[in-house]
Design brief:
0% strand, mainly alpha
């Protein structure tokens, strides 16, 4: 009984690790194909999921300034 439990836990751990590595290699949800590194480029064309509506100037500038704490100067 203990050997079966150990094998089951080991299998689940292995499958979890493989899923984790696959997610790491895919670049993440926010990145469009071709994006590399720890952050994505600004703009809707660099997003993994395309926005539902078209962006206005405020949307573009907000995305360009993220994650900075200061908003764009023309707000």
């Amino acid at each position: 009984m203990g050997l079966i439990r150990t094998a089951l836990i080991g299998t689940l751990g292995y499958l979890g690790y493989k899923a984790y590595k696959k997610n790491q290699e895919s670049g993440g949800v926010a990145f469009a194909s071709g994006q590399t590194g720890n952050h994505r480029d600004a703009g809707p064309e660099a997003m993994g999921d395309k926005p539902v509506r078209s962006w206005n100037k405020a949307d573009e500038e907000s995305d360009e300034s993220f994650p900075a704490s200061d908003p764009p100067a023309n707000y």
